[in-house]
Amino acid sequence: IVDGEVDYDYFYLVLQWPGSYCNTGKVTCYDDAWEYRFTLHGMWPQKDGQGVSCPGSPDFHFNEVQSGSNNLLGRMDRWWPSFNAAHKRSNKPFWNTEWKKHGTCTSFTQSEYFEKAISRAEYLNLYLILFKAGIRPGMQTYTSEIKNEIEMTFNLKPRIQCNEDQYGTVQLYEITFCVDKTGTQFLNCTYSAACNREPIVFPRTYYQSTAQQCSY
Ligand code: 5GP
Ligand code: 5GP
Ligand code: 5GP
């Protein structure tokens, strides 16, 4: 067993809708963050239906994901950005948090861990899949359409999670998939708490900054 590795059954691959992370009134996001992508929140090892707790070291290091021809940084910036303005335009604190909390349990190196999560997100290309099905950010509300579309496309049952925007509107927040412990295959699994409120909106991305106050 590799140093720091803990036994786990599979991963939760958790993708967030940036708009719904940013519009709760609880965090302040960059005002120009990317909107047209479900981005990674994390890839979390699960054992017996629960998250496992990891050693939490070593820290994330850029040189681990940048070495040689295998430079992952571009894909990490694209698929695993942090929208939290508190982090002063670096994704590093978010990557460090997620790696320490969830990556240090795995048998993967830092570059393997990030690469596997990102490959899965790229494969899903969720925003495009939903967009093509007419499921797009806006005023419309949804019940089972989002889940059904994903199930039909991938033959996988996702977990839909919701949260509330600053006005209390229930909205699509995260979509979770299960991935086997090698980090390469999706699988169906059971999930802990999912959204049990309907209908939900798939909001456009609004930020708290003045740049977003104008309506267009
Ligand atoms: P949520 O974003 O769903 O409101 O909050 C989930 C919280 O639980 C996050 O802070 C997340 O980091 C933490 N967490 C850590 N490990 C796990 C896990 O394996 N499963 C779940 N469901 N949550 C986890
Ligand atoms: P978790 O929810 O996994 O326990 O913790 C995620 C941590 O990363 C939190 O401290 C959160 O504030 C920070 N963070 C920074 N940027 C982001 C982001 O874009 N999305 C999410 N979900 N968390 C972020
Ligand atoms: P530091 O470890 O001093 O924060 O950053 C090391 C290098 O990585 C610096 O050149 C910094 O500009 C760069 N860097 C910091 N955060 C990010 C990020 O989120 N993405 C990318 N691609 N580079 C970053």
Automatic annotation (TrEMBL):
The record, for SUPFAM superfamilies, names: Ribonuclease Rh-like
Question: What residues make up the catalytic site?
Answer: 41, 98, 102
GO terms in the biological process aspect are:
RNA catabolic process
The record's GO molecular-function terms, alphabetically, read: ribonuclease T2 activity; RNA binding
Task: Determine if RNA-binding is one of this entry's keywords.
Answer: no
Which keywords annotate this record? Disulfide bond, Signal
Report the transmembrane regions from the record. none
Is Disulfide bond given among the entry's keywords? yes
Q: Name one GO cellular component term.
A: extracellular region
Q: What is this protein called?
A: Ribonuclease 1
Q: Which organism is it from?
A: Quercus suber
Q: Per UniProt, what is the name of the gene that codes for the protein in this document?
A: RNS1_0
